[in-house]
Amino acid sequence: MNRDWVDKDFYRTLGVAKSNSAEEIKRAYRKLARQYHPDANPGDESKAEKFKGISEAYSILSDPERRKEYDEVRRVVDSGGYRHFPGAGQGAPFGGQVNLEDLLGGFGGFGDLFGQGGQQARSGKGDDLSASLRLTFEEALEGVTRSIAVKGQASCLDCRGTGARAGTVPETCPTCAGRGATVQDQGPFSFSRPCHQCQGSGRLIRNPCPKCRGSGVRHRTRKVRVKIPPGVKDGGKIRIRGRGAPGRSGGPPGDLVVQVEVEPHPFFVRNGKNLNLVLPLTYTEAILGATLEIPTLHGSVKLRVPPGTPNGKTFRVRGGGVPTRKGKAGDLLVEARVEIPKRVNRKQRQLLESLAELERKDIRSHFEVNK
Question: Most buried of 198, 245, 285, 371 (most Cβ within 10 A)?
């Protein structure tokens, strides 16, 4: 980037507005290029110079990233905000030396758009690590704290993450004074660049740790205690902030993402915050009714099955479902399933045949069709 970005209005050069799309800018450029191209105007130096300006403008505005940078510079220049910074002259724009990073940083936090060095650019968040955890059905519903083995990058135990051999410490880089960046002047601007001596770290390790070779990290397995909240589902992921790989050059550590596998329960099935339970009934219990004990997560309760309960009827036990963080648990939904025996003994058959003789009502009378 050079002073042209300050002095020249590339949108005006192409005859377009800042709001125009990339396709509209392209069409405008092609129209002007046909008009001012040197091949169409041999010997005309003024049109050749005009064509150079058109090509320069299009090279910036046709590139989304460079157009974004140019727009921001023009925004700051047009606002007159550069006058608030040391070195800005009172006459021509940027009459003195101005650090463009500071200038843009004062207007919307343009940050490291121009690739500046320094602590913010050279440091970085560590990578996220992943691990898996298998829980019982009850542990997943009630929550649990467990220790899990995590494999991946971790702080070196020998140097405690400093990268320097035990008994020594890293030195502050004398070239950049620990900033990790040096300033390079270019016209009216000054740019920060990563320091060539310390490679942007701000530190020099004269005597590196032999185990991690000065990196401060090693690939190893470590134990991490993980608190699983109540109600986690099978396949759910829990993100543990700051328990991933160490950050680079003083940056924050990454996260640990734990994927949960929940073992199935022998008779409960989870449905959101409710639990489903299938209750087998004999046909006599379904006909005559019964009071039965059924299991819940916290012991058994009694359930009254009224006489004449049909197959598939569902009973609701309030609060017998999945606990929630707000304290109000879901319900236990109990489905009656009448079990019909495939075989009966002689006495049972005799009783059933006697019962059949007493059944007078024709339950299929609606099938009859008048002839």
Answer: 198
Closest to 315 (Cα-Cα) out of 340, 342, 290, 349: 290
pLDDT at 120: 41
193 vs 68, more confident: 68
Note the maximum CA span of the chain: 120
Q: Residue 196 has what pLDDT?
A: 79
Strand partners, 150: 222
Q: How far apart are CA 31 and CA 16, in angstroms?
A: 12
Give residue 96's pLDDT band: very low, low, confident or very high (50, 70, 90).
very low
Contact 100, 190 (CB under 8 A): yes
**3-state secondary structure string across 19-74:** CCCHHHHHHHHHHHHHHHCHHHCCCCHHHHHHHHHHHHHHHHHCCHHHHHHHHHHH
Residues 6+ apart with CB under 8 A from 13: 53, 54, 56, 57
Scan for tokens 């005597």, then name that residue: 207
Tell me the C-alpha distance between 165 and 213, whole Å: 9
CA distances (Å), 285 to each of 279, 309, 325, 347, 349, in order? 11, 8, 38, 19, 18
Beta strands in 241-331 (DSSP E): 256-262, 268-271, 274-282, 290-296, 299-305, 314-317
- AA letter at 203: R
How do residues 257-272 score in pLDDT, each as one tens digit?
999 999 999 999 999 8
Give tens-digit pLDDT for 285-317.
999 999 999 999 888 999 999 999 999 999 999
Give the separation between CA 153 and CA 128, rounded to whole angstroms: 10
Q: Give strand ranges (E) for 80-207.
A: 98-99, 129-135, 144-155, 171-172, 181-186, 189-194, 203-204
Q: How far apart are CA 28 and CA 16, in angstroms?
A: 7
Tokens describing residue 335: 């489905």
b or e along 5-40 (b: 16 or more beta carbons within 10 Å of the residue's beta carbon)? bbebebbebbebeeebeeeebbebbeebeeebeeee
